[in-house]
Write a structure and sequence with these properties.
This protein has about 200 residues and is of the alpha/beta class. α1 packs across α10. The radius of gyration is 16 Å and the shape is globular. The protein binds cytidine-5'-monophosphate (C5P). Cytidine-5'-monophosphate (C5P) binds next to α2, α5 and α9.
Length: about 200
């Protein structure tokens, strides 16, 4: 069975949690595509060469989850050649037999517009900053400023900007618990699997 769930949205909206839960619930493979951009940003040197030569070991680096790695990722993610170098891998992953969930910024719009389920998971910048701050600590105002800066860069870039696909189901998690958000996503997948 070929079945793709595309999950897009801004940082700390809950995409990762939803994607991981859907993958384990339905037995789909999962790819956190942000990790590809984080690995390219963390590698240093020429980002295009880094994207073309990305290895498993690059993706296993322990320092890819930091705020700084997120900022570095969004800077290399504006470069069209970097994005182009990562497209094929993501497309193949999305259409592998057995089903796949991919979360990122351009999955439903560019990587897999034919995805069977498209979710756009979002929340207010303040709510997202608070969630991220609970994970990483530090100065909450600074976390909010970084989230807003990354939103601006991700939504404003010319190549594959962050925006909902026209046929995406928008899930605003600002006032939802994790369980409620996951439940809505599970229902969307179930409905499509059952042909509803
Ligand atoms: O999702 P995550 O916070 O790990 O993504 C880090 C950065 O990588 C994003 O801010 C964005 O600039 C970039 N990205 C992207 N396209 C994707 C996934 C991530 O441009 N599909």
């Amino acid at each position: 069975m070929i079945f793709t769930v595309a999950i897009d949205g801004p940082a700390a909206a809950g995409k990762g949690t939803i994607a991981r839960t859907l993958a384990s619930r339905f037995g789909f493979a999962h790819l956190d595509t942000g990790l590809l951009y984080r690995a390219v940003g963390a590698k240093g040197g020429d980002p295009v060469a880094a994207a073309r030569g990305l290895t498993e070991a690059d993706l296993a680096r322990p320092d890819l989850r930091t705020l700084a790695a997120g900022q570095a990722a969004s800077r290399v993610a504006v470069i069209p050649e970097v994005r182009a170098a990562l497209v094929e891998f993501q497309r193949r992953f999305a259409r592998q037999p057995g089903g796949a969930v991919l979360d990122g910024r351009d999955i439903g719009t560019v990587i897999c517009p034919e995805a069977e389920v498209k979710l756009y998971v979002t929340a207010s910048p303040e709510v997202r900053a608070h969630r991220r701050w609970l994970e990483v600590g530090g100065d909450e105002a600074q976390v909010l400023a970084e989230i807003k800066e990354r939103d601006r860069r991700d939504m404003g870039r010319a190549e594959a900007p962050l925006r909902p696909a026209p046929d995406a189901q928008v899930l605003d998690t600002s006032t939802l618990t994790i369980d409620e958000a996951v439940d809505l996503a599970v229902r969307a997948v179930q409905a499509r699997l059952e042909g509803r």
